[in-house]
Every structure is written in structure tokens, then in C-alpha cells.
Amino acid sequence: MMKQDIRVEFTSAKKPKPDPHDLAFGRIFTDHMFVMDYDADQGWYDPRIIPYQSISMDPAAMVYHYGQTVFEGLKAYVTKDQEVLLFRPEKNMERLNQSNDRLCIPLIDEELVLEGLKQLVAIDKDWIPKAEGTSLYIRPFIIATEPFLGVAASHTYKLFIILSPVGSYYKEGIKPVKIAVENEFVRAVKGGTGNAKTAGNYASSLKAQQVAEEKGFSQVLWLDGIEKKYIEEVGSMNIFFKISGEIVTPELNGSILEGITRNSVITLLKHWGLTVSERKISIDEIIQAHRDGRLEETFGTGTAAVISPVGELIWNDESLVIGSGETGEISKKLYDTITGIQKGAEADVFGWTTEVASLSETK
Amino acid sequence: MMKQDIRVEFTSAKKPKPDPHDLAFGRIFTDHMFVMDYDADQGWYDPRIIPYQSISMDPAAMVYHYGQTVFEGLKAYVTKDQEVLLFRPEKNMERLNQSNDRLCIPLIDEELVLEGLKQLVAIDKDWIPKAEGTSLYIRPFIIATEPFLGVAASHTYKLFIILSPVGSYYKEGIKPVKIAVENEFVRAVKGGTGNAKTAGNYASSLKAQQVAEEKGFSQVLWLDGIEKKYIEEVGSMNIFFKISGEIVTPELNGSILEGITRNSVITLLKHWGLTVSERKISIDEIIQAHRDGRLEETFGTGTAAVISPVGELIWNDESLVIGSGETGEISKKLYDTITGIQKGAEADVFGWTTEVASLSETK
Ligand SMILES: Cc1ncc(COP(=O)(O)O)c(C=O)c1O
Ligand SMILES: Cc1ncc(COP(=O)(O)O)c(C=O)c1O
């Protein structure tokens, strides 16, 4: 595609920044957003950074009816030297296009959108919180905008990037969670959209999540939709187990999301000389390993929590307490290493970070 | 729930009506729409009919990200006596609430929304086209509106009803279609959202539909997601087969939509003294029946086409021509009877129609 200029329109009314000690997740948004349009004649056109504002669309816009939409999630971090870093953002662009392909949405120019994302973060850099564990959450998303009630791919789309300063996932230090193995509801199945980051996967997960929360569990562990036997992933995390020293995680089978944290974890573990297998893992295998005292660690991986140790798994009425409910050694080391790289405190041997701005330079 | 008044604000700028001979599906909308809001304090509140207008929402509104949305589809018809009839609208309200339940959306007062729907159709009754086969398509839908990027049920919603005058599905008389049996992609699976009318099901169907259209087929026939063996339904229709005189249709198994036309067809067939079975039907059974010359008819059922005879099924590279590619006797009789009832030309023995307005009375 041809190189396109990104036009910038600054806001004339900057919003007050939130109290940095009182940040939640995904409720407060910055002063600007990135927008780009698509139509069949022009392709993706008019990339621009404009003041954060409402979206106004016809009630017949296809996204409201048929859910033709995809999204991404990544974060910007401030280092101790006041540099603003992104963590593997090109991976998110790549995955956005994989999702686009599955949802029949026209592919984006990954470089152009990444450039827009970087410029946006640089413009709103004063919004990035600096305290331990805080960051700027970045949400690119695409929606089908054609006002048409037929079930077909839209002929027009809009891409947005919005930014939200977010608090620490672990307010009192990294803490293991309780996760329920889901027996009734199914998130995704081979041939469906499980490996795309698209709205419907999350809509279909709400019911199971609600039931789990009522019972005091933080998330559900999904099993495969075909045999309800093989482990897939958690709400918005991939999952890893350490069994008799071997680290295992479900293979990419078409129905789980290919997490970027998952990929970073596998790379790091191998780099440390540990054995990692991507393969089918049945829930029976996990239960048996637990009974035999061989289930040493369990943890989830995802952008929000980075590493989320699992202290207890609930399967029907059976409770499997893992590692006395404490954070395991590997979980801790992965968490420290990845957050260290993200915050510029650990050597970035894999070239995972990209600097987009500095808070110390006078703009 | 308490009875609520529906407030009405008329448009001051009526739009020109479309050429009745040139109506497509779902591209033109009438002068007004019904809207109602939900929040946790007030429940569903402020039901109102207002001028048709854009929806303006925060870019973080949950529907854009997590697809928490449901919809319905039904039609209003004009009889030869100029009466406006709805066909089993209470069934659509019931199904909307079933979908709400699956998607963790607060239930609606079915009577209130049906009352709003009727008033809306009455107000925009001049938009209902009168020619053979034309009708007014009615689209109720609910979207999650809370500006929040966490994966959870929204705390606020909007319900809309919009209206679209639509042309005849069969411009040159009822005509059999070619349908491809889908082998790769899956629409829904038990434990998922297949039996709810929600966005994600349609988003996930686009890819298969696109491939089928490129090959010259009008729709795909979905198989179950578990064994890829049992017949489920077509894009937006349920499916029926007549084999050696017996009429069969897939049972309601949790992954197919419970079509209202399907229900009407079963009722009519039984009323006529025919045998109808709701059961599992494997694709092998259909192929074998065809080879043995026992597959007498195949047809889809849905609000859009009412009855859509299938003239040819494609399974891998095998083509199954059904009834020499002509419309079968049962298909024809069902089509004539149901459209007759809808248009007030046939006796409505089951009490399926509801009058909402008359075009002859001076308003
Ligand atoms: C369903 C699902 N699985 C896994 C992940 C983890 O992916 P990542 O590590 O790229 O954040 C996410 C979150 O993005 C997700 O939504
Ligand atoms: C997936 C699906 N199946 C079946 C149907 C047929 O249902 P109905 O007869 O109520 O229109 C529809 C259309 O509403 C549909 O979307």
C-alpha cells in the first residue's frame, strides 16, 4: 500500500487526569483517538488523530446486528528513565490482521496503523501513569459501519485506537486466583472464531463467567467444545501447567487465541533451558497429576495480568489446591522478567520493546 | 413490571418513500424508531417513539468490543382489505428474552415492547409496501452501551426497533436454491450461543457464506460442530426434508435457532395429518435417501423467504438434485398457506395474526 500521512487535530479542551492512586481498568480515556475509514473505492483512508469523541452511526450499522468486529489489546509502560515503551506491538498488528481475515474485514496496513498508534501514545503521553504496575492500555478495534440488515460482509468500516490509563492488576503484589473448570458452556470450537479476537467470543463467555463469579471464582477454565475434555484457555489468558518439571500449554488448535504473552513465555522458558511442550492436555491428566502430587504450578498468561498464578482449580465439586495456593517459582520468575523487560529494568535480549516517546524531553 | 407510557415525538421532516417496484432488503428505513433505555437503578425506562436518527455512543461502549447484543426479525403485511397484520409477534418477544437470558442482558417486559412495536408500525404505516410479496421488515435489537473495556455484562443497554420496507423475496415466483453443505467452518456448538439470536453467530458465519457465494451457491447448510455429521440449519433458515413421505427436521438441540416459521410449519403439517419428526438427521442419511430415490423434498423456513425450496445440495463435489430442481408439492402448499394467513387471504385457524392498524381509515 502507498504511504499515507496521518493528520492530527489537537483537542482544545484537555480533560483532567485521574488520580494515579485510584486507577481502575478501562473506564477512563485520554484526550485523543486514532481513526481510519474504509470503503470499497478508497480502501483504508484518512488515517487521523482527533479529539476523543463519540461515534455516531445509523442504527442499522452492521456492527449492532451481526457483530462483524475485531479488536486488540496492548500496553505502554514508562521506564525509570522516563521512556515510553511498547511491548511487541507488531505482534498485535499481525494478530489484528489474522482476526480480520477470519471476520471478512479488509486487511490493514500494519505499519501504518502501528505508526498511528505510536503517534497517538506520544501525543497523550502525559496520561501514562508511572506508579509500580500501572500502564496505559491501548485498544485498537474495527467495526462494520454499513447501514444494511442483510447478513453479509460490510462494505464500509472504521478502525479506532483508544487509550486508557490503568491501575496495577496486583494491588497487593502478585496473588494466586481460584479458577473453575467450565462443564456446561463452551467458548469456541474448531471451525468457529476462537482463534480470532472478535466480539462474539467474549459475548458468549459472559454467562459462564457470571455463574463462576457468583460461586466466588475469578474466572473459568474452558474445555474444548467437542469432547469437553481438553483444556483450552481462561477468560482472557492462555494457561500453563508445570507437571513433574515439564511445562505444558495447550497447542494452537484453531479454537484458542494465540496470546502474545504465551509466545513470550514459551520463548523465555526455552531460553532458560526448560522443557516446554505445546500439546493436548486433558483435564483428567491435570487431576491425576494433582492427585499424584506432580502438579507443581499453574499460571495464566495475558496482557492484563502478565502472569496470573492459579492457586486453586475447581472441577465439579473437587478442589485442587496447587502449590499450597502460593505463587510458584516459575510464575514469579516469568512475572519479574517480563514486567522487567516492559519497564526497561531487565535486558531486552529478544528486542521486544519499542520506544515511542520520552517523558523527560520538553515537547 | 409496572405499566409504562410510551411517549411519542413525531418527525418534522418526513423522508420520501422509496419506489415500490424497486425495493431491496434492509437498506431503507422509515421516519420513526422505538427506543428504550436500561440502567441498574431504573430498569428498562423511557420507552419512546422518536424520529429515526443516528446512535451516538462512546467508542468504549461495550457492544463495539464484546458483542453483547441480541436481535429479532419479523414482518408487517397489508391485507387486501388494507389492514396491517403482524404474524406471531409475541413469539419474537419471547425469543428476544430467551436470547437476553443467554447473553446476560436484563429481560424486557414483552407486552410493553410489543405495544411499542405496534404503535411504531401504526405511526409509520404509510411506509408498508402493498405489492405481492412485499412487506415491512421489523428489527428489534438491544445493545450494551456502558463505556467499559472489562469483559463483563454491561450495566446499561438500549433497545431499538427500526422498520424497513422490503421487496419480494421471490421476484419471479418461488424458486429453488442451491445450497452447499459446509465441511470446514462451524456456526455454533452445544454450550455456545447457537440457540440465541445474537451478533456473534452471524459474524462467524460470514466466511463460509462468502466462500459458498464465490462458488455459486446461495447459502451453506451447517453441520454440528462436534461430529460434523448432523444437520443443523441454513444461514437464516431452519431446514426440512421429506423422505419416503415422512417430513423430518433437526431437533432443537441447543445449537440451532428455534425458528418461528419452523414452529408454524410443524403445526400446519400436523394439522394436515402428515407425519413430522424432530430428530437428529445425519448428512449420510440424506445422501443415502437421495441415492435410493427417497429424498422427495427439501426446504428452508424463515421470516425472510417464508419457505425456500432447495433444488440442489452440494456435498464435497457431489451434487444432489432434489425433485428435478423444481419446487415440491409440500413446499408450495406451505408457502401458499402461510403467506395466505399473513396476508389475510387464508383462514387464520391458529390465531397467528394480530391487526395493528388499517390503511383505509383516515388518521
Ligand atoms: C481469549 C484470550 N485468550 C488469551 C489472551 C492473552 O493474549 P495476550 O497475551 O496477547 O494478551 C487474551 C487477551 O488478549 C484473550 O482475550
Ligand atoms: C440462524 C437462524 N435460523 C433460523 C431462522 C429462522 O427463524 P424465523 O423462522 O423465526 O425467522 C433465522 C431467522 O430468523 C436465523 O437467523
Please give a handful of descriptors for the protein shown:
homodimer; binds pyridoxal-5'-phosphate; 19 strands; 8 helices; alpha+beta; 363 residues; nine-stranded mixed β-sheet
Notes on the structure:
- Two copies of one chain form a homodimer.
- Chain A is of the alpha+beta class and 363 residues long.
- Chain A folds into two domains: 7-168, 2-Layer Sandwich (D-amino Acid Aminotransferase, Chain A, domain 1); 177-342, Alpha-Beta Barrel (D-amino Acid Aminotransferase, Chain A, domain 2), CATH 3.20.10.
- In chain A, 22% of the residues lie in helices and 31% in strands.
- In chain A, strands 1, 2, 3, 5, 6, 7, 8, 9 and 19 form a nine-stranded mixed sheet that branches. In chain A, strands 10, 11, 12, 13, 14, 15, 16, 17 and 18 form a nine-stranded mixed sheet that branches.
- In chain A, a hairpin with a 3-residue loop joins β2 (32-39) and β3.
- The longest helix of chain A is centred in the first third of the chain and has 14 residues, at 89-102.
- Chain A is globular.
- The two termini of chain A are 31 Å apart.
- The mean pLDDT of chain A is 95.
- At the A-B interface, β4, α1, β8, β9 and α4 of A face β4, α1, β8, β9 and α4 of B.
- β4 of chain A pairs antiparallel with β4 of chain B, so a sheet runs across the interface.
- Bound molecules: pyridoxal-5'-phosphate (PLP) (2 copies).
- Residues 73, 233, 236-238, 257, 259-262, 301-303 of chain B line the site of one pyridoxal-5'-phosphate (PLP).
